[in-house]
Design a protein that fits this description.
CATH topology of chain B: ABC transporter involved in vitamin B12 uptake, BtuC
Order of helices and strands of chain A: EEEHEEEHHHHEHEHEEHH
Oligomer: heterodimer
Helix content of chain A: 25-40%
Number of domains of chain A: 1
Strand content of chain B: under 5%
CATH architecture of chain B: Orthogonal Bundle
Low-confidence stretches of chain B: none
CATH class of chain A: Alpha Beta
CATH superfamily of chain B: ABC transporter involved in vitamin B12 uptake, BtuC
Radius of gyration of chain B: 20 Å
Low-confidence stretches of chain A: 237-241
CATH superfamily of chain A: P-loop containing nucleotide triphosphate hydrolases
Number of strands of chain B: 0
Largest sheet of chain A: 6 strands, mixed
Mean pLDDT of chain B: 91
Helix content of chain B: over 70%
Radius of gyration of chain A: 18 Å
Distance between the termini of chain B: 55 Å
Distance between the termini of chain A: 37 Å
Number of helices of chain A: 9
Number of strands of chain A: 10
Shape of chain A: globular
C-alpha cells in the first residue's frame, strides 16, 4: 500500500540549531497516527513541516506522491490553545465559520449553507448551545472542541492536531477520541501529537516515535515496544540538549 | 453656529476628518487586537521630520510632497524598529520609545533651523503638523485624505476574511494558504498611509489616538469583530465631527486636541456604561453577592 504522506530525509534547524535530522517516515491513509516523543523532540516542528509552515534545510514532503504544497486544502489543522489570539472578539460560530474559508475563495462571505455546515459541526462536538458565546469565555476543553468543529467544517480529509488532549476534561477527551474513530470510518486520516504514553495503544493504530529523528514507526503492534520507547525517552535524552 | 455648520469650508473639512477617523478607527482596531498599538504611536511621531524634510526640498507646503515625505519617514522608522528588535537584545517597547523620541526630536530641530533661516518662506504652517489645524487645511489636503481613506477601507474590505483569520489564528491562516506577510504588510501600509495624510488634520503627536481610542471603545461594547469595527469607525467619525466643529468655532483651538478630547470623553463613558464597563460589572458583583 502506498502511504498517504511521505517524508523524505527532512532536516530542519532553528537559528542553526538542528531541530530534526534525517527524518524518513510515512503516514498511512485512513490511520490514526500518534506522534510521540519527549519534550523538545521536534513533534510540533514535524507537523508544521508537513503543513509547509516551516522551511526545512533540506528534504521532501509528499502527499500522494506530489509536493505537499498542492494538497494543503485537504489538511485541517487544530492548533495548540496557546497559539491563537484570545483578545480577538469572536463568537464560537465565527471561529467555526473560518473553516469554510478554503471553500469560499477570496472575497465571498460565508452564506447560509456554510452556516448550517458550521452548526452541524458544532452539534457533532456537542457545542451547539455555545454558538453565540465569546470564544475567550470557554473552558480549555470547550475551546478544543471548537477548534475540532472548525476542522470538521473545513471538510478536509487529513486532520493534523497539536496536543489536542492537553489540559482538557475527561469527557472532552472521550468525545474527541470517539469522533476521531467515527471520522476514520468515513475515510479520514489523523496525525496527532500526543503526550500520554499510557493511552497510545488505546487511542491510536499507528505511531511515530520521535526524538529529533525517527526512532520507530509503524503499526502499534510493530513499533510500540518498550525498547523503542526507552531509546526515545531515556537513552537519547540529554545527549543533544 | 448655524453659519459654521452650513459653511462650505467647514463641511468639506469636516468630511475629511470624519472619513479619516472612520478609516483609522477600523484599521486601528486591527493593530490594537494584534497588540501593536504603540507601533502606530512611534510611526506617528516619526513622520514629522518627513514633513519638514519634504518642505526643505520642495520649498513650499505642497500637499502631496509633504505627505510623501511623511510616508517615507514612517516606513524608515518602522524598518529601524524592526532592525533594532531583530538584531539586538533591545525590547520592542524600548525600541519604540527610542525611535519615537529621536525622530520627533529630529523633526523639531529641523523645524527650528528652517524657521530661523531667511531662505525659507511660509515656515509658520509647519507647526500645524504637530497638533493638527484642520481649519487651515487646503482643499488638496482634504481630497488626499478622502482618497487615501476610501482606498484603505476598500482594501480592508477586500481582504476582510483573510485579515480576520490571520489576526485570530496566524498558524491556521498559514495552513490554509493565506499569506501572513502580505496581511501584515497591508495592515502596516494602510496604517502609515492614514497617518501620513492625516497629520495636517490631527497632528503627529495625537494621531495615534485616532487609531487606538475607537478600538478600545468598540471592544468595550461588542464581542463580535465586525461590530467592533463598525462601532470603532462610527465613534471615531462622530468625535472627528464634533472636534472639528469645536476647533473651527473656537479661536485657535487645534483640531487634534479637540477631536482627542471628545474621543477621550467617549472612552470614559464607555468604561463606565458599556456592557463590559464598571457599572455593569459592579451590579453583577452585587447580584452574585446577594445570592451567596
Amino acid at each position: 500500500m502506498t502511504p498517504l504522506i511521505t517524508v523524505k530525509d527532512l532536516n530542519v534547524a532553528y537559528q542553526e540549531k538542528p531541530a530534526l535530522w534525517h527524518v524518513n517516515m510515512s503516514i498511512q491513509e485512513n490511520s490514526r497516527t500518534a506522534i510521540v516523543g519527549p519534550n523538545g523532540a521536534g513533534k510540533s516542528t514535524l507537523i508544521k513541516s508537513i503543513m509547509k509552515l516551516i522551511r526545512p534545510v533540506s528534504g521532501k514532503i509528499e502527499i500522494e506522491g506530489r509536493d505537499a504544497r498542492h494538497a494543503l486544502k485537504r489538511v485541517a489543522y487544530v492548533p495548540q490553545k496557546g497559539e491563537v489570539n484570545w483578545d480577538f472578539p469572536a463568537t464560537v460560530l465565527d471561529v467555526v465559520l473560518m473553516g469554510r474559508y478554503v471553500h469560499k475563495g477570496w472575497i465571498k462571505r460565508p452564506n447560509r449553507k456554510d452556516e448550517s455546515i458550521a452548526l452541524s459541526a458544532l452539534e457533532t462536538m456537542k457545542m451547539e448551545a455555545f454558538k453565540n458565546r465569546q470564544i475567550s469565555e470557554l473552558s480549555g476543553g470547550q475551546k478544543q472542541r471548537v477548534f475540532i468543529a472548525r476542522a470538521i467544517a473545513q471538510d478536509a480529509d487529513i486532520y493534523i492536531m497539536d496536543e489536542p488532549l492537553q489540559g482538557i476534561d475527561i469527557t472532552t477527551e472521550k468525545l474527541i477520541i470517539g469522533i476521531m474513530k467515527q471520522l476514520q470510518q468515513e475515510g479520514k486520516t489523523f496525525i496527532v501529537v500526543h503526550h500520554h504514553l499510557d493511552t497510545v495503544e488505546e487511542y491510536f493504530d499507528h505511531v511515530v516515535i520521535l526524538n529529533k529523528t525517527v526512532i520507530a514507526e509503524g503499526t502499534i503492534g510493530s513499533a510500540w515496544r518498550k525498547e523503542n520507547i526507552n531509546r526515545a525517552y531515556y537513552e537519547m535524552s540529554g545527549s543533544h540538549d | 453656529m448655524i453659519d459654521i455648520l452650513s459653511g462650505y469650508t467647514f463641511l468639506i473639512v469636516a468630511f475629511g476628518t470624519v472619513i479619516l477617523a472612520f478609516a483609522s478607527g477600523v484599521i486601528g482596531t486591527v493593530s490594537v487586537i494584534k497588540g501593536q498599538s504603540l507601533i502606530g504611536d512611534a510611526i506617528g511621531h516619526a513622520t514629522f521630520p518627513g514633513i519638514v524634510i519634504a518642505f526643505m526640498l520642495v520649498g513650499i507646503r505642497d500637499t502631496f510632497s509633504l505627505a510623501l515625505g511623511a510616508l517615507i519617514l514612517g516606513i524608515v522608522a518602522f524598518f529601524i524598529i524592526q532592525l533594532i528588535t531583530e538584531q539586538s537584545k533591545i525590547t520592542l517597547d524600548s525600541a519604540l520609545a527610542l525611535v519615537l523620541s529621536s525622530f520627533f526630536g529630529l523633526g523639531m530641530a529641523l523645524m527650528s533651523f528652517v524657521q530661523g533661516n531667511p531662505n525659507f518662506d511660509g515656515t509658520q504652517g509647519l507647526s500645524d503638523y504637530i497638533f493638527g489645524q484642520a481649519a487651515y487645511m487646503l482643499r488638496s489636503d482634504v481630497y488626499l485624505i478622502i482618497a487615501a481613506s476610501i482606498l484603505s477601507l476598500l482594501i480592508f474590505a477586500l481582504f476582510y476574511q483573510q485579515i480576520k483569520i490571520y489576526i485570530f489564528d496566524p498558524i491556521y491562516s498559514r495552513s490554509i494558504g493565506i499569506s501572513n506577510p502580505l496581511m501584515n504588510f497591508m495592515i502596516l501600509a494602510i496604517t502609515i498611509t492614514l497617518i501620513a495624510v492625516g497629520l495636517k488634520a490631527v497632528g503627529a503627536i495625537l494621531i495615534v489616538n485616532l487609531l487606538i481610542a475607537p478600538a478600545v471603545i468598540g471592544q468595550l461594547w461588542s464581542n463580535r469583530f465586525f461590530h467592533v469595527l463598525l462601532i470603532a469607525g462610527t465613534t471615531g467619525a462622530a468625535a472627528a465631527f464634533i472636534g472639528t466643529y469645536i476647533s473651527t468655532a473656537g479661536d485657535d483651538i487645534a483640531t487634534g486636541p479637540a477631536i482627542i478630547l471628545v474621543l477621550s470623553a467617549f472612552v470614559v463613558l464607555s468604561l463606565i456604561f458599556s456592557r463590559k464597563g464598571l457599572l455593569r460589572r459592579s451590579i453583577q458583583k452585587r447580584k452574585i453577592g446577594e445570592r451567596t
